[in-house]
């Protein structure tokens, strides 16, 4: 009859005591509860995939390209790897060479500067002028060369010196296409010389 007098008809649920595996009172220092042996990654969420190890660091052999002559300094999976690695390596190398040349040029031209601040300004201007210019030019050439080389290799079914020389000649001609026939021939010849040296290096080392 408790409902007639406004009493609470709900029964109190028994409280359950929660016990933890770690007792804070038993800790003496930090190393007592930072125990790496007790960490079991398999009990974590399965989507984390921590029980399988670091799979993204493993390069599967079956995913590599099977075109003859396609492998160089590092193994590649397809033409995009060759395009990215080749272009990036050439760009960074040319950027460093251009920056070093600009540094030497700036130091030479500002050796009679009135103050150290003016000399520093002149050196920085020379570095930022020569480095990006040479890096961007080499990056465009490498991007064009790798794109043409990968296309020729795809249709021929292999990568060899003929692919490299043809791609270098076409890339050099395209780079100077707006300057006329003579600059196109000079640029094409220079690119073919560099490609020939690279092919000789690959044949000697690999």
What spatial form do the alpha-carbon principal axes imply?
A: flat
Largest sheet entry = none
Order of helices and strands: HHHH
- Average pLDDT works out at 75
- Oligomer status: single chain
Radius of gyration: 33 Å
Which structural class is indicated by helix and strand composition? mainly alpha
Please give the alpha-carbon distance between the first and last residues.
96 Å
> Using DSSP, what is the number of strands?
0
Helix content: 40-55%
Strand % is under 5%
Poorly predicted runs are none
What's the helix count? 4
Write the layout of secondary structure elements.
Layout: H1 79-109, H2 116-156, H3 161-175, H4 181-205
Helix pairs in contact: 1-2, 2-3, 3-4
Can you summarize this structure?
This protein is an all-alpha fold.
Description:
- By secondary structure, this protein is mostly helical.
- Among the domains are: 77-143; 160-205.
- Helix content is 54%, strand content 0%.
- It has helices spanning 79-109, 116-156, 161-175, 181-205.
- The radius of gyration is 33 Å and the shape is flat.
- It is found in: Membrane.
- This is Mitochondrial import inner membrane translocase subunit TIM23.
- One of its GO terms (molecular function) is protein transmembrane transporter activity.
- It holds the Pfam family Tim17.
What are the defining features of this structure?
mainly alpha; 206 residues
């Amino acid at each position: 009859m408790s409902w007639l007098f406004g009493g609470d008809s709900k029964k109190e649920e028994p409280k359950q005591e929660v016990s933890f595996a770690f007792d804070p009172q038993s800790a003496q220092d930090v190393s007592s509860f930072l125990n790496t042996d007790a960490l079991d990654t398999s009990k974590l969420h399965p989507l984390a995939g921590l029980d399988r190890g670091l799979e993204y660091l493993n390069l599967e052999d079956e995913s590599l390209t099977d075109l003859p002559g396609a492998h160089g300094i590092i193994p590649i999976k397809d033409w995009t790897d060759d395009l990215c690695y080749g272009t990036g390596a050439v760009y960074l190398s040319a950027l460093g060479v251009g920056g070093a040349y600009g540094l030497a040029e700036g130091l030479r031209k500002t050796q009679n500067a009135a103050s150290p601040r003016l000399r520093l300004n002149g050196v920085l201007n020379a570095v930022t002028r020569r480095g990006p210019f040479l890096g961007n030019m080499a990056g465009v050439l490498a991007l064009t060369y790798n794109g043409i080389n990968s296309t020729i290799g795809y249709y021929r079914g292999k990568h060899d010196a003929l692919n490299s020389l043809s791609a270098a000649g076409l890339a050099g001609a395209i780079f100077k296409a707006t300057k006329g026939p003579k600059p196109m021939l000079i640029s094409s010849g220079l690119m073919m010389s560099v490609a020939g040296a690279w092919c000789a290096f690959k044949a000697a080392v690999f």
